[in-house]
Amino acid sequence: MNTDFADVPWGLLAPVIILNLILVIVALVDYVKQAKTTGAHPFWIPLILFVSFLGPVMYLIFGRRNQ
Question: Of 2, 38, 52, 67, which is least surrounded by CB within 10 A?
């Protein structure tokens, strides 16, 4: 299998990759700052890190506890 990265449309993928990284960073920072979350506490870290794009969004919508 020969993958040539020169053929990848980086102009289209770069904004999506950057947005995903920003969401992951924001969700992880919020997770660390929150003392309590909704649901199982250790469950959120793998979800944020390994479920691309939807994991951080799910945490920010459902995992945060309103104060």
Answer: 2
Q: How far apart are CA 39 and CA 45, in angstroms?
A: 12
Domain carrying residue 55: 21-32+40-67
When divided into structural domains, the chain yields a total of: 1
Whole-number average pLDDT of the chain: 81
In total, the chain counts a number of residues equal to: 67
In a domain, 15, yes or no: no
In our burial notation (b when 16+ CB lie closer than 10 A, e otherwise), range 35-60 reads eebeeeeeebeebbeeeeeebbeebe
Q: What pTM did the predictor assign? A: 0.71
